[in-house]
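Students often ask why inverse folding is considered easier than folding. One informal answer: many sequences map to the same fold, so there is more than one right answer. In these notes we will look at a single instance of the problem. The structure comes first.
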């Protein structure tokens, strides 16, 4: 059974998840696992990139010299990437960390469009899209969990 059939199949103008708390729980778990998988992949990418900048790997510092930015700026971005990679692993700071990483990715997209071939911006665009997905999945799972708690509370009353 697909996630669409499980969570979004309509009957009587309500989704399956809205009528059955157990299905809602499965939906929330499935979306939570998807968010965890995307988050783990993003953490690895940003941790690798941030550590490259912090360890002064020339490949990671070349864009900053091309844009005539000070060397310290590369280290600053490296710190943001490492802290963001760690932060998106914690639910409490996931949205804030993803937003900070999105700002870094906007700088990367700017660099690729203005100093390289625009096609080189595709990885940065993909990472930005995945960061948006992390933010959206976090919101959705949070709403599903709150809704599930309301249904359980209503069932407990009856």
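Output (designed amino acids):
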């Amino acid at each position: 059974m697909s996630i669409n059939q499980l969570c979004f199949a309509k009957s009587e103008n309500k989704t399956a998840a809205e009528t059955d708390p157990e299905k809602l729980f499965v939906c929330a778990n499935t979306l939570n696992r998807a968010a965890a998988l995307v988050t783990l992949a993003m953490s690895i990418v940003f941790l690798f990139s941030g550590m490259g900048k912090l360890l002064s790997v020339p490949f990671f510092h070349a864009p900053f010299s091309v844009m005539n930015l000070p060397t310290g700026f590369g280290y600053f971005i490296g710190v943001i990437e490492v802290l963001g990679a760690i932060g998106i692993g914690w639910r409490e700071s996931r949205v804030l960390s993803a937003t900070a990483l999105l700002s870094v990715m906007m700088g990367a997209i700017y660099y690729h469009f203005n100093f390289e071939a625009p096609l080189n911006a595709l990885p940065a665009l993909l990472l930005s899209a995945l960061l948006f997905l992390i933010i959206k999945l976090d919101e959705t799972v949070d709403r599903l969990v709150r809704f599930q708690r309301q249904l359980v509370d209503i069932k407990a009353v009856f």
